[in-house]
Amino acid sequence: MALLLCCSVCSALCFIYTAYYLFKKVRRPRIYGKKTGSFYKHILAHCPSLSRKYWPTWWAINAHVITIGRLALQRPPSGLTYKREIFNVSDGGSLALDWADPEVHSIKDDSPILLILTGLTSSSKVVYVQWLVSDGLSEGYRPVVMSFRGLGGLLLKTPRAYCANTDDLEPVLKYIHSSWPNVPVVGIGISIGGIILVQHLRERGRDSGLAGVATVSSSWDAHVTLFETLEKPLNWLFYNRHLTKLLVNYINKNCKHLMEKGAMTKEQGEELMQKAKKCSTIREFDEAITVPAFGYDSLWEYYENGTNGNKLHQVKTPLLSINAENDPFVPEKVLPIDGFCANDDAVLVVPSHGGHIGFLEGMLPTRGTWMNKVLREFLNAIKLYDKNK
């Protein structure tokens, strides 16, 4: 009798869970854009995954599980090889440009270039970035990962680090265009990388130097993300605390290096490390370190500069953005739906599930995700898109 009761309860729970999964989580993504616009129509015609239901991994239907699950389970693509180039910036700093090795991957001379900007502390070594490179190769691109200063195995050469601005992106783009003057360049930005790319589109208007841009899990309101969302208890515990520790470690490692090289005095280095040590959130880190280092008058000014949602009307380059409804970094309330619907050149894709750079699918999601599927279709679509038609 007890066994029968137990089986009945388990069956009922399985039925309820299955119904919840099928009716609440398995959905077509919501798509926002100017429906009469050529780019909106082109994306729908050439990105079939957007017209189909997204089936997230059935056991990863919580935002935190799907976000952390990708970190734990995803494995890198096989056979990927980079050729590193050190790019020297005019102020004396440097950063790494990691190109997919053209000899190993048989890249054609006239292949379009895919410029990848990563998340806050990522580099070309991170698994999700390697899958983006693999996506680019599969669609006939020449992928290159731009690591921020002091990341990707490099140490800072000057006290200037990096933040959510376009200061380093601009010279890198100019260099790429001077090296391949007749080749289109497409950008993909993840999280902060997407923020920087959209900033660039805003600042440059029709003269962005990019044929198209895709962003994934990028914030549209830095004030809300960093003052509210990431300081909620669970989000602080799972993400904010960890990312802040990585930033503090970044400061410590690079300050010690700069002091050894004589590029920073002992007093300057120790003062900076002490300030960083007191930070327990990204907001505190930005206020103590980023704002004074980059000459902002206030934290509000820095975050307003990194807020793109209220400035979408300035974007004149084809833009596809993916943000999950349940992203623990980017709440649904800050998605600039009206801005996308009023813009001829921008499309927003909002799946019901996906977390932050999660988007797992399949029983054992160790390879590329739903995000990668959509981005491959986007890369193909951009090659076929003529904005002037």
From TrEMBL:
Keywords, comma-separated and alphabetical: Hydrolase, Serine esterase
Keyword Hydrolase included in the entry's annotation: yes
Q: One Pfam family, short name please?
A: Abhydrolase_1
Superkingdom, natural source: Eukaryota
Location of the active site: S191, D327, H356
One of the entry's Gene Ontology molecular-function terms is: acetylesterase activity
Q: Into which family does the record put it? A: Belongs to the AB hydrolase superfamily. AB hydrolase 4 family.
Q: Under what name is this protein listed? A: AB hydrolase-1 domain-containing protein
Q: Which organism is it from?
A: Amphimedon queenslandica
